[in-house]
Specification:
DNA recombination; globular; Pif1-like_2B_dom; 5'-3' DNA helicase activity; 2 domains; 33% helix; 6-stranded parallel sheet; alpha/beta; 5-stranded antiparallel sheet; Rossmann fold
């Protein structure tokens, strides 16, 4: 059931508008995408769902925007790409020609230069001078969350570019939070989101270090770190502490062509190789059963290892045999360009905050040491479903970084 603002967004899409849907974490943007897809499928409208990262794409059962675009990193001239796409035909060309509605999730992480190139290529391939060649856009994201990764300089957000006014005709703010049920925690997160961190809030956040994260299912907290080096070290160390040999599960990959392999080979969210032991802490990488709370990001412990399957006891109290699932990228449901078949699990002792964006995590231990980016602290805290199941270490007011351009954008939209 959609709330009033979600219905307004759906109606705007139905009316043919280019819509930007925004709001804090956990306000039901993924649900809205599903409702848009249901409507479009009823009309047999060609829709492609994309996201700016692989993790976000998996959550909405889509592909990365780079995979849809078919122009690699977009380093060449737009005319070169358009000529190449027309010349080789195939699914990449067909996507541009046939797509009526393009959904782009986690827009905050979109690279402005790449987006401008993609928009230009779309106009050239479709021979249509309208923005994006006349493809309708549904854009979703929260600019208070992580921005585009641009080493050594301040991130440039797409709303700061000339492209923005061309692409967006209507902005809708979703405000009703579903991820967290506790209104006090929702208020805390909203204040962190906008950088309103006074002494009172700091004291509440620091009090979380006293939280006991022990639970009946034996699920240990996932630790969120700011940097990859800490994550890799933690996952390897924790697995090595468990007794016995690790079982290894190797993915089975399919690519329609060598070009598809080069383009999509690095875009799977399912791991190429998965090493597990009994007792290992894991995270589910697929939505399996909403009613049983077995969704992307659900935490559990490995109870048994079989041939092509893993038995997991989840924090929600359910024990389930997890078998291999197939992740598809590119093409159409009838003819895929790339796929990977693998157990939809990953070690979950630790994750980077960047890799966690879009997830809901049951039991969470956050280490904000070395926090360096706009939105990083807010993304980390807003992954939690409950404050009492969250511990926040090394918190300082300086860890909450809010880009002034983002604050200005929301003050005026």
């Amino acid at each position: 059931m959609l709330n009033e603002k979600q219905r307004a967004a759906l109606d705007a899409v139905k009316g043919g508008e280019n819509v930007f849907v925004t709001g804090p974490a956990g306000v039901g943007k993924s649900l809205l995408i599903r409702k848009v897809l249901e409507w479009a499928e009823g009309l047999h409208m060609p829709v492609h769902v994309t996201a700016t990262t692989g993790v976000a794409a998996a959550i909405v059962d889509g592909t990365t925007l780079h995979a849809w675009g078919g122009i690699g990193l977009g380093e060449r001239d737009a005319r070169w790409y358009a000529k190449k796409l027309r010349g080789r035909g195939g699914w990449a060309y067909a996507r541009y020609r046939q797509t009526k509605l393009l959904v782009i999730d986690e827009l905050s992480m979109a690279d402005v230069t790449y987006m401008a190139k993609l928009e230009h290529v779309a106009r050239l391939v479709r021979r249509d001078s309208r923005p994006f060649g006349g493809i309708q856009l549904m854009l979703l994201g929260d600019f208070y969350q992580l921005g585009p990764v641009q080493k050594g300089r301040r991130p440039q957000f797409i709303f700061d570019s000339e492209l923005w006014e061309k692409l967006v005709s209507k902005t809708i703010h979703l405000t009703e939070v579903y991820r967290q049920a506790d209104p006090q925690f929702v208020d805390l997160l909203q204040r962190v989101r906008v950088g309103d961190v006074g002494d009172d809030l700091s004291q509440i956040i620091r009090s979380s270090t006293e939280h006991s994260l022990v639970n009946d299912a034996g699920v240990e907290p996932t630790v969120l770190y700011c940097r990859n080096v800490d994550v890799d070290r933690a996952n390897k160390a924790e697995l090595s502490r468990l007794p016995g040999e690790a079982a290894e599960f190797k993915a089975v990959d399919f690519f329609a062509s060598r070009a598809a392999q080069q383009l999509h080979g690095g875009n799977f969210t399912l791991p190429a190789t998965l090493q597990l032991k009994i007792g290992a802490q894991v995270m589910l990488l697929r939505n399996l059963d909403q009613d049983a709370k077995l969704v992307n990001g659900s935490r559990g412990v490995v109870e048994a290892l079989g041939s092509g399957c893993v038995t997991v006891r989840f924090a929600a109290g359910t024990t389930r045999v997890i078998e291999a699932h197939e992740q598809h990228i590119g093409g159409t449901p009838q003819k895929r360009l790339a796929s990977r078949k693998q157990i939809p699990l990953r070690l979950a002792y630790a994750l980077t905050i960047h890799k966690s964006q879009g997830l809901s995590i049951d039991v969470l231990d956050i280490d904000l040491r070395g926090c360096f980016a706009h939105g990083q602290a807010y993304v980390a805290l807003s992954r939690a479903t409950a404050f009492k199941a969250t511990r926040i270490k090394n918190f300082t007011k300086g860890a909450v970084i809010v880009d002034e351009a983002v604050a200005s954008f929301y003050a005026n939209h």
